[in-house]
Specification:
There is one protein chain. It is built from 1 helix and 4 strands; from the N terminus they run ββββα. It has 90 residues and is of the alpha+beta class. The strands form 2 sheets. Strands 1-4 form a two-stranded antiparallel ribbon. Strands 2-3 form a two-stranded antiparallel ribbon. The structure holds adenosine-5'-triphosphate and magnesium ion. The site of adenosine-5'-triphosphate has 12 residues, from β4. Magnesium ion (MG) binds next to loops.
Length: 90
């Protein structure tokens, strides 16, 4: 997997305690970016639903900001060392 620290916001626009109005480069904005962790994992298709359920089970606090899962297709994976491709390269 790959883990990165990033800045982000969701539907609450990063506002945590009431209205936060900031002036960025002369523009008033209410968007506030919060530090988050982004995890990327390329997995076999058949594991996707199990992983979604496990993340929901472990990460859901029932509060805003729990995070989001985005699913997208990967065209190909190649392990450079061996030349293995597809699921064998994961
Ligand atoms: N539509 C989006 N596009 C890109 N990144 C997003 C999007 N929605 C959320 N994120 C990322 O996910 C992080 C967590 O989002 P968050 O869980 O607050 O989503 P939400 O839609 O506000 O849901 P909730 O109402 O449960 O808080 C954000 O800080 C941002 O990095
Ligand atoms: Mg949110």
């Amino acid at each position: 997997m790959t883990v990165a620290t990033i800045m982000g916001c969701g539907a609450q626009k990063g506002i945590v305690d009431g209205d936060v109005v900031r002036v960025i480069k002369g523009y008033k904005t209410t968007i506030n970016l919060l530090p988050k962790i982004k995890i990327e994992a390329v997995v076999p298709d058949e594991s996707v639903e199990d992983i979604i359920l496990k993340i929901q089970e472990k990460c859901s606090s029932d509060h805003v900001g729990d995070g989001k899962i985005f699913i997208h297709n990967i065209e190909e994976a190649i392990r450079i060392r061996t030349g293995e491709r597809g699921d064998k390269a994961l």
